Amino acid sequence: MSTRERLPQLSGDPFITDGGMETVLIFDYGLELPDFASFVLLDQPAGVQAFRSYYVRFLDIARERAAGIVLDTPTWRANADWGERLGYSPEALADVNRRGVALLEELRRDAKGMQLVISGCIGPRGDGYQVGDAMTSEEAESYHQPQVETFAGTTADLVSALTLTYVDEAVGIVRAAEKAGIPSVVSFTLETDGRLPSGQALKDAVAEVDAETGAAAAYFMVNCAHPTHFEHVLADGGLERLRGLRANASSKSHAELDEAEELDQGDPHELAEQYRSLRLAWPNLTVVGGCCGTDHRHVDEICAVWTG
Fold this sequence. Notes:
- The protein has helices at residues 21-27, 45-65, 80-85, 90-110, 137-152, 167-180, 202-213, 227-234, 254-259, 268-281, 296-307, and strands spanning 15-16, 68-72, 116-122, 158-164, 184-188, 219-223, 242-247, 287-290.
- The protein is an alpha/beta fold.
- It has an eight-stranded parallel β-barrel with strand order 1-2-3-4-5-6-7-8, surrounded by five helices.
- The longest helix has 21 residues, at 45-65.
């Protein structure tokens, strides 16, 4: 049975992800990411080496903590609108998405004996913090279909749509993935009140995506939000389909983070303890990692409390 037919992170065993790739590359590696797009580094030998160095840190954590790992390709911005802004043709975008998978496949071959799941990363058409010009689900399916189909033609095990702000875009991506024959994961971002930037409650958003797609998504996640923003939401129940969390290091709002001139890395130990406190209210949470401001230190602390 292929990994696509049975994703190992659905087994209940602990899996980690990487951290805030873009913020690490900018603030720790000193690299420039135009429009917050990391995929452009795949065209630079030094950039590819930076990716390898970045990913290996998280692979080492998974190995030491005896956890599985889900790694996303550096393609969160590699869709049509952002690609055009950065001078990439549709053919060039497809090629860079394939090379993102190929890089992780190399690492998987080297990581013998480890459960390494390759996720083709899909980002929102907009900026990820605001809804902006919303698409219908049909428009979203058509828009994201090329990137989804590109990943489906590689060794990627699934596609993960990160930092989504409203339901229709999520529905479109899930439908595109189902047609392409590749599992999908939907990850919503939340404001400080625990709601999507669209204003919808998380529980209602998950239920609507499932209702519109026949529950075709493998599972749901939350990313680019701090645990203090949504811990109260979990008490209401109805989030059994939520299996993953990639929290920000900072408890600041999206608006505050946009205006910040320095990176807020928070406290890795404190963030891990906040993850620990979520376990009782969130028993289905098995995929844990970080988002903006987090690095290998945060994920190591989180993995320690999770596997321990």
